[in-house]
Amino acid sequence: MQTGYILLATIAVPLLTALALTVIPSRYPNAIRVLAVATGFVLFGLSLYAFFAYQLSSGDQFQFELRWTWIENIGFLGENGITLHLGIDGIGAPMVLLTGIVAFTGTIISWKIDYRNKDYFVLFFVLVAGVFGVFASLDLFFWFFFYELAVLPMYLLIGVWGSSSVFPTFARTKEYSAMKLMLYLVGASVFIFVGIFAVFVEAGIGTFDLPTLYEVEFDENFQKIVFPLFLIGCGVLAGLWPFHTWSPDGHVAAPTAVSMLHAGVLMKLGAFGIIRLGMQLLPEGADFWMPALITLGTVNVVYGAISAMAQTDLKYMIGYSSVSHMGYVLVGLATLNPIGVNGAVLQMFSHGVMTALLFAMVGALYDQAHTRDMSVFGGLAQKMPRFVAFFSIAGLASLGLPGLSGFVAEFNVFVGTFQTYPALGALGILGAAITAVYILRMLSQAFFGPANERWADLKEMSHLEQAAGALLIAFIVFMGVFPSPFVDRIADSVLRIPGVG
Amino acid sequence: MSNELNLDYSLLTPEFCLGGLAALILALDLFAPRFRKEWLPYLTAAGLVAILVLSLGWVNKESDFAGLIFIDNYTTFFRVFFIASTAVVALASAHYVQARLSNPGEYYALLVLSTIGAIYMAASRELLTAYISLELLSFCLYVLVSFSTSDRRSHEGGLKYMLLGAFASALLLYGISFIYGSSGSTFYDEIAAAYAGGTDGFELGLLMGLVLVLAGLGFKVAAVPFHMWTPDAYEGAPLPITAYLSATSKAAGFALLLRLFSGAFMPVRDDWQWMIAALAAITMVVGNLVALQQSNIKRLLAYSSIGQVGYMLMALAALSSASASALLLHLSGYVITNLAAFICIIAWYNLTDKEEIRGFRGMAERAPLLAAVLAAALFSLSGMPLFAGFFTKFILFQAVASEGFLWLAVIAVTMSFVSIYYYLMVIKEMYISEPEEPGRLQVPVLLSGLAVALVAGVFYVGIYPRHLLEVAEEATKLLFA
Question: How far is CA A344 from the centre of its chain?
Fold first, then answer.
């Protein structure tokens, strides 16, 4: 059964939970935890349902549609001016699933939070609602509404529950990172906001409804001018070089579950926005600007990988590897070629799951060891075998080992790139090679080799963390060995993007 | 001008009642020594609410008093708006006035009297009536700003406000004389009719008139470069009066501007659009940039309100029925939000005597409800979703962009982005910095109740503003008839 109420529930359930949490007295921290994890589980169930009930050959561009008129026929708003129009296509479906997985595992990982955990979960669920909303919205107003909603709680989540990093020559306080992240993301939204104004005025039909706006043929010059607004605005969130510097700082400073959501899902909002607002709305603009995007995306891949190699802090390494991996997404989108765009969307899902796993594992280690400096660890495999196994799987997925999700995604991106820009494809593969270097070096240095006495009293990670990790690994392997449920959904919708093919 | 003037005094009943309420408050204060003074705010608020209900009787009615004062949906909208916000300010003053000010009777009476001025600023369709209403509001405010006899900043702020206000009034009057000279009337509709027939020979007089009127009113609403009094008056005034300045007095200025420009100056739109657009642009930029370096919460909100004035002026530059209703929507959202913010600041100041932003440290630990409401209000002012600010700004900016002022909307969005920084600095102190002293604070039920009610309004406007927008549309429809 397909109904838009499923999508509505993914937005309403976290918001209502946030509301309910505010009335639970904070002297019952366990009740708060149970409610949070239960909500996470419900969201996971809803997103699984939305993904698997998505019909492959329905012929409709969007499924699970729901349309509630919010405001119409008033002022400058015409018919269907602002509608709560929800729906997903084959690109939205895996994103909704991804959000469900990461939100659920995130609530499990957050069980450990003691300090004001009520406030924490309220903000966490506002963030989750925003993310689900962006993936499900088919109305420009609400798209932007949820986009900002996802940014809203970040400052406090990082500022209150985050951690500062101190290096020999400088420090990155959590306040600094939180403010940097907020200013980058809100600054980026200025571009999107202006783009929305321009599109609305140019279309002149008084509606923010996206499918209606997709029918409008915008003037070519207009498209060329406005597309970069969406590209930069959404690109910042996707970690587009040279606007990526908020992302390693922000992800490192954030508490574990927020890093998981942020790197795992929020960066995908950016890429998703490039598709929804950029490529689908302004195809000629996209065609014009894609050479620029593919160049910047390649810089992302190589520069991110080199930067990751230079890091001594485990979490910063993962942060920069996210920049590098998001580069594949951008490159894949920029090919405007069915295989490449397919790969980009696959990579969005794959990177989301594996980076969530990586951040969860780093968080589990940091909570015990209180340091993330790779060089001081050694031989952890003897003390924490499961932890090391989980971490290694995530690392191997990250470097694109066949049989895990990263391979499927990156392979598609490379094929797409070689068909369009062979030279840049070669550089992309170089990036993958560098990734292999830093991941394997990190594994050998920190986890294997002789045991370090200093870490003699480290314990295996908790059962909750193992459960969360296992769930994430299940999806990494699932997509690695059986990608067709993903590919089938994505491929059909990718072909409907004008200008792809 | 027809010879038969409609002198139906019943149209003015709510204002007569307001005047009566003010007199009653004064009389109680003077002649009833056994009347307990701490009941005055509740009496004031109760009286205001009763008058508010009474004024709802004029919904969808349309009439005028001698062509000077129009009672239509626009007036009714602002009647309700001003009376409600005055009632909130009166309640919010209760503890503050009792603890820190003498002469509570005069305080509340002036507050009520100023509301009459504010209402007639929205209602009048004649330049001199509008001017007198403006002066009524201003004179009450001059006194209220300098009401704190123990605080020298209050005297300084009051004096500055009065001197500059008098200067602005002079400019405005001089401007009115030019308008009268070039059009031959002080009635809005006759001015419009005169200008619609061409301004041959009077082009310069019209321009002078527009410039002077804009400068005079610009002072009142604190548009840059006429804003210099704002931070000092805001800082010096007793806190509830600061709230009142930022809410009612600002809204009244815009109520007058909107009625005046849509009623009288529409035919000469080309002559003033660029002026207001330029004012709006400078006001947004200066207000938001200067706010960045403030360390006192009152001054911060003073500059942030200047920034907000810039957004509202934008709607005036891009005047159309869509942008007028967007302006009313934004104004309502802004006033609700600002009052919510001020309630928290007042409550915090009552308990800790701190009004520096640094003094807000650890509010989340010591008074979590206040911190949450203040954070919500600040996020709303910066235009974050779920809160009023997002929706009202979105509608306002889009309305401006739709009228061909995309460049203004771009500046507005950019400045709105700048504003997030200084609001976050306040939130940082409340939530991230350690408290200076430990211990929960007991916030009075009255103030926490008000804060919760207002923040509920902020959410309502932010999530489902349809009804408010429809009301605003109804209220402004006749302006463009």
Answer: 12
Residues 6+ apart with CB under 8 A from B469: A71, A74, A75, B325, B329, B395
In whole angstroms, give the CA distance from residue B180 to residue B196.
Answer: 15
What are residue A69's DSSP bridge partners? Answer: A83
Query: What pLDDT, on a 0 to 100 scale, did the predictor assign at position A1?
Result: 58
Which DSSP category does A71 fall into? E
A14 touching chain B per CB within 8 A: no
CB A307 within 8 Å of CB A323: yes
Beta-carbon-side half-sphere exposure of residue A344 (alpha carbons within 13 Å): 33
- How far apart are alpha carbons B428 and B237 in whole angstroms? 26
The reply to whether residue A190 touches residue B321, judged by beta carbons under 8 angstroms, is no
The mean pLDDT of A358-384, rounded to a whole number, is: 83
> H or E segment at B355?
none
Nearest CA in chain A to B466: A71
**Alpha-carbon gap, residue B83 to A399, rounded angstroms:** 66
Q: Which helix (H) or strand (E) holds B238?
A: none
For residue A112, count other CB atoms closer than 10 A to its CB. Answer: 17
pLDDT above 70 for A260: yes
pLDDT digits (tens, 9 = 90+) for B416-426: 999 999 999 89
Q: What is the pTM of this model?
A: 0.92
- Rounded CA separation A390/A396 (Å): 10
Q: Complex ipTM, two decimals?
A: 0.89
State residue B1's pLDDT score. 46
Question: Distance between alpha carbon B303 and the CA centroid of its chain, in Å?
Answer: 14
A176-184 average pLDDT score: 90
Mean pLDDT over the full length of chain B: 90
CB within 8 Å: B469 and A198: no
Q: Return the SS3 of A1.
A: coil
Q: Which residues of A touch B427 (CB under 8 A)?
A: 155-156
Counting Cα atoms < 13 Å in the Cβ hemisphere of A170 gives: 2
Instruction: Read off the pLDDT of each residue in B204-214 and give the average, rounded to a whole number.
Output: 90
- Asked if the Cβ–Cβ distance from A71 to B390 is below 8 Å, we say no
Q: How many residues does chain A have?
A: 501
Secondary structure (3-state) at A85: strand
With CB atoms and an 8 Å threshold, state whether A141 touches B394: yes
- Res B311 pLDDT > 90: yes
Minimal Cα distance from A208: which residue of B? B398
On the question of pLDDT at B84 being above 90, the answer is yes
Burial of A65 (0-12, 13-18, 19+ CB in 10 A): middle
Residue to mutate among A23, A139, A186, with most B CBs inside 10 A, is A186
Chain A residues touching residue B418 (CB < 8 angstroms): none
The answer to whether the Cβ–Cβ distance between A70 and B466 falls below 8 Å is yes
Q: What was the pLDDT predicted at A427?
A: 85
Instruction: For residue A153, say if its preceding peptide bond is cis, omega within 30 degrees of 0.
Output: no
A76 touches chain B (CB under 8 A): yes
Q: Which of A193, A205, A229 to mutate to test binding with chain B, by most B CBs within 10 Å of its CB?
A: A193
Residues A183, B421: C-beta atoms closer than 8 Å: yes
Residue B315 burial by CB count (10 A; 0-12/13-18/19+): exposed, middle or buried? buried
- The residue among B427, B374, B421 whose CA lies nearest residue A159 is B427
Chain B within 8 Å of A198 (Cβ-Cβ)? yes
Rounded to 10 degrees, the C-alpha dihedral B431/B434/B437/B442 comes to 20
Structure tokens of B300? 């911060």
Report the C-alpha gap between A428 and A347 in whole angstroms. Answer: 14
Contact yes or no for B294/B360 (Cβ under 8 A): no
| Residue carrying structure tokens 């499924």 | A63
Residue A298's CB is within 10 A of a number of other CB atoms, namely: 26
Residue B481 reports pLDDT greater than 80? no
CB A94 within 8 A of CB A490: yes
